């Protein structure tokens, strides 16, 4: 039984699905190297994934494709939810960013757009948002 079937709904199922997708992305070139494994371990911690769940996800016979939402809003929502989790420790390193960018591309964003979205998301979630962007966001909410 695939591990995702163990969870019918809820945040943990969503987190497990995110993690499984990231593991599949990391393994796309055949194997997960030690550097990728270290990044996946960080994500597992942030996503509250257990050792048992990690072992199940990492089995070679388990492949978890990214479910690409047809709606642009749903893609942004999935990426937003993922950023909420990533920034639980208020930090994203370069290796995490690379995997998140692959994730965004897998969700259906063009590579350049994915990179721009990741840059802006990092700025927003790390509190480094430019005044102009802040002003646009706040002004939009007030109208």
How is this fold's topology laid out?
Blueprint: H1 11-26, H2 34-47, H3 51-58, H4 72-86, H5 94-106, H6 111-125, H7 131-142
Helix pairs in contact: 1-2, 1-3, 1-5, 5-6
What does this structure look like?
This protein is an all-alpha fold. 65% of the residues lie in helices and 0% in strands. It contains 7 helices and no strands. It has helices at 11-26, 34-47, 51-58, 72-86, 94-106, 111-125, 131-142. Helix 1 crosses helix 3 (51-58) and helix 1 packs across helix 5 (94-106). The mean pLDDT is 80.
Name the overall outline.
elongated
Structural class: mainly alpha
Radius of gyration: 16 Å
Q: What is the strand content?
A: under 5%
What distance separates the N and C termini?
50 Å
Largest sheet: none
Kindly state the percentage of residues in helix.
55-70%
Order of helices and strands: HHHHHHH
The average pLDDT value, as a whole number, equals 80
Low-confidence stretches: none
| Count of alpha/pi helices | 7
**Number of extended strands:** 0
Pick out its properties:
143 residues, mainly alpha, 7 helices, 65% helix, 0% strand
Summarize the model shown:
The protein is an all-alpha fold.
